[in-house]
Amino acid sequence: MKKPKEEFVDDGRVIADMDMPGVRKSIWDSSGVRINTPAQSSEKLPRRLDGEMPWTKKEMFYFYLGSVASVLLYGLIIFGGLALFLILWLR
């Protein structure tokens, strides 16, 4: 006979805190605001950390350029491999 399962009750404990101070929550946040963890600040609104500067337009340009270049390189490898496979297979 099966035992009835106990209902799960969340007690709110944190096993592993995944918040890292100084890391943006989103790469699309262009304001440059980096958040504090609750342990560092009792404020509810995020604020800049001491000494942290927002990204410049040049840094953002190179960030997006690197992202696009990595996607294009990945696509070139995939489609190049597919083309090579088809050339060798149809021969």
Folded structure, characterized:
It is a single chain. By secondary structure, the protein is mainly α. The chain folds into two domains: 8-53, no CATH class; 55-91. The protein has one helix and no strands. It is flat, with a radius of gyration of 24 Å.
Provide a short characterization of the protein structure.
This protein is mainly α and 91 residues long.
Query: How much strand content do the residues show?
Result: under 5%
Number of structurally distinct domains: 2
Relative helix content: 25-40%
Query: What are the segments in which pLDDT stays under 50 over at least 5 consecutive residues?
Result: none
Number of helices: 1
How confident overall, as mean pLDDT?
Answer: 76
Compute the number of strand runs: 0
Main beta-sheet strand count, sense and barrel state = none
End-to-end CA span? 64 Å
Can you give keywords for this protein?
single chain, 91 residues, mainly alpha, 2 domains, flat
How is the secondary structure organized here?
Elements: H1 57-90
